[in-house]
Amino acid sequence: MTTADGRATITFEDVARAAAAGTGVIRETPVVSSRTLSERVGVTVALKTENLQRTGSFKLRGALAKIAALGDACAAGVVTGSAGNHAQALAYAARARGVRCEVFMPETAALAKVEAATELGAFVHLVGVTVDESLAAARDRAERAGLAFVHPFDDPDVVAGQGGVGLELLEQVPDLERVIVPVGGGGLISGVAIALKSRLEAVQVIGVQVEKCAPFPASLTAGHPVAVDSAVTIADGIAVKRPGRLTLSLIRRWVDEMVVVEEDEVAEAMVFLLERAKLVVEGAGAVGVAALLSGSARFERGGIGTTVVILSGGNVDAGLLAEIVRRHETQAGRRLVLLARLPDRPGSLAQLLALVGEHSANLLDVQHIREGIDLHVRESAVQLVLETRGPDHARAVTDAVRRAGYAETRVPR
Fold this sequence. Notes:
- By secondary structure, this protein is an alpha/beta fold.
- The chain has helices at 12-20, 35-41, 59-70, 85-96, 111-119, 131-145, 156-162, 164-172, 187-197, 216-222, 245-254, 263-276, 283-294, 318-331, 348-358, 391-403, and strands at 31-33, 44-49, 78-81, 101-105, 123-126, 148-149, 176-182, 204-210, 257-261, 306-311, 335-343, 362-369, 379-387.
- The strands form three sheets. The protein has a six-stranded mixed sheet, with helices on both faces. Strands 5-4-3-6 form a four-stranded parallel sheet, with helices on both faces. The chain has a three-stranded antiparallel sheet with strand order 11-13-12.
- The radius of gyration is 25 Å and the shape is globular.
- The protein starts with 11 loop residues before the first helix and ends in a 10-residue tail after the last helix.
């Protein structure tokens, strides 16, 4: 995988060899069609469901490839730094190959990912608040303990392993026209692009980063890795502040375009996939769908081939997913919050609730409020959380409450 001057290069044959290292462990993930996405963007869209891969992401492919390439060099064990998905993948791969594993994860890592890595047999260390800090700690541990360090993306064996996704697409989608790929450190998109363009030169490969942590556009312009200040995003699986030198050079060579999506667009894409495709996808895995829904990834309608979006991972914290769904319900007008002033006399609340019931709103929560707002001594206030059928129904309920004479109503946006 090196040229005469010592620089790393990766070929289609390297990808095929790395993919073979996962035989018996890697699951060939399905490609499923999406009629709704296809209708919205005007081309045929399909989803490559790497969120259904073992360990919940594509990362297992690269981890298995690296352990195979290390051979006896990892006899003492392997160590890595990761936000979670690579940590789980390396732990799984190490267990499958009988190798000891340690992982360093940020203190802010999702609890579910920490627990998963632990359950897979890894010794987990929580260090720092970013992946870069965890990687530095892992490198130090490797040097002191004689462990083999496995980089999550800036490694030719890892990149080649991730290219197995591209090999599967070559077989699964005969009319492949373009692929939209989430980008964190760049290992996945590099491997996929090499696998695809080595056989289908005309296929278009588009990378997607989230606005709050998008170092690649500036790095590609500068010609060298440029770090960003923040890595705080719901797409924590791709929250890499600085590209690797290897992946930056590969992306410059093989990738057609890099686009950026906003945080709110990622959240909406996660809900879209849950509601319409019945797929649980983490923020990092949903950025490709966000790029389609938001129009960040633009192309002519009516193409004859298929556009594939890679859903790179499904390891989302259940609490975060619940918050995103709740926020979506409010924005869609299906969740309404009303604040109403009531006369402080028996039966007032019952009358208000009866009115709400008459208009077919479902009561989810009720809370008495006596502080923080200006109330008459003979008044009380209640906050109602209601489930409605949509914006029109929400407005009808609000209007009815207002017409009934309640002094104050409020509909938060």
